[in-house]
User: What shape does this take?
Amino acid sequence: MTNPLPTAKPVLVVDFGAQYAQLIARRVREAHIYSEIVPHSWSAAQILAKDPAAIILSGGPASVFEPGAPKLEAALLEAGVPVLGICYGFQAMAYALGGEVDRGSKGEYGSTATAVGRAEGLLAASPPGQTVWMSHGVAVTRAPAGFEVLASTDGAPVAAFQDRGRRLYGLQWHPEVRHTPLGQAALENFLHREAGLKPTWTPGSIVADQVAAIRRQVGSARVICGLSGGVDSSVAAALVQRAVGDQLTCVFVDHGLLRAGEREQVERDFVAVTGAKLVVQEAAAVFLEALAGVTDPEAKRKIIGREFIRAFEAAARGVQTGAAGEVKFLVQGTLYPDVVESGGGDGAATIKSHHNVGGLPDDLRFELVEPLRALFKDEVRAVGSELGLPDAMVWRQPFPGPGLGIRIVGEVTENRLATWRRADGIVREELTRAGLDREIWQCPVVLLADVRSVGVQGDGRTYGHPVVLRPVTSEDAMTADFARIDDGVLARIAGRITGEVAEINRVVLDITSKPPGTIEWE
Assistant: This one.
């Protein structure tokens, strides 16, 4: 399969079980340096075999004193590769090199004042004090021999250190989170100043590298792309078309699990912008039949993934005419968060199977082309703009591949789909009217189809369904916070839904961050 591999060596983020390992990788990308995540279970030899330009050791929930805690091999620190340790990675580095880590130290959690004693190297241009985000119960109390201490806090006598001769650096705090205002500056000091890396990972370089990779993979063969109208599949299709032109045929599967007006938007907008060949595959009845009686969300995802592939196969048979040849490749808009949440990589936990990662059948007839598999959502949008796609397409709110199959909690039926579409249409209309389309990352509307609640409408008793609003803000969907929407906007949404959608008599608001809750309910 195709990945947007850069020509430069990667920065490897060693994941010690951190909540924010993916966020570290994103911040490296923001510095225009390509990054990849590897598990802590890899040996030093495996990590070094990838020829990294630099290594970042992530935080994690363990303590270096705990039995079974992830260990850091000295060979990783002796290879001459620049290494930055963060939180647990910082403590593991200190411990491995003979420093002291105090198991009885005062813990620090959240916003913390830091005194910077040496504003050089890793902390070059830092003011004497910084506000940083801490999350630690033990601390480094003595730096290893050869290291200079750069900063300290009340609970961490050694909060930052460096050995510039060996190109080893560490921070007790989390520079990757926005709660550390100067965190990105520290990461860029490490990447650009200390490791000497050039900022070559840009939308233009991604497009150039990927177009070349697609041409190498596909050759003269024909390609089919499952187009949903969302930014991911649209950008993936635009990349492949730039690479192989008329060898690509886009297939839009109308599976009946779409938002109102989505099919028309794809047929009108995408074709007009790209000039791509488009085939519409009618499959709503097939999907509804396959989902009949199914309520388990993982089962729904896998059924939808299976039926997608079957629909693609039927479409491929339809477009194989004359001397054009057999369709051998399938394009998918798989993203890095899809892979991570589906358990991609050694040691990764499966949060939920994404239909294009965990739900594909074993007898898949196509070879996959996944030009976005290593990208975060913001990078996909930047690539879309680089390719000339309009803002209306590039900034469209994310919509899950399984569609309404996972936004209806319970069995998916035609009546429930119609109810959901009316409610969702109201929400989208009011958010647009309030000017919130760019501020809100996504606002899933969740129909609790197997739940009923008592209400009163027109002096009569009702026994209708609740619907949940899940507005969130995010940068890449790996983490998210609930969006603070004005009460007046929420009141209009609730009033219109309960007044215009007879089956719904209650509107509730989900104010859970991610983690612990995922953006989608299923």
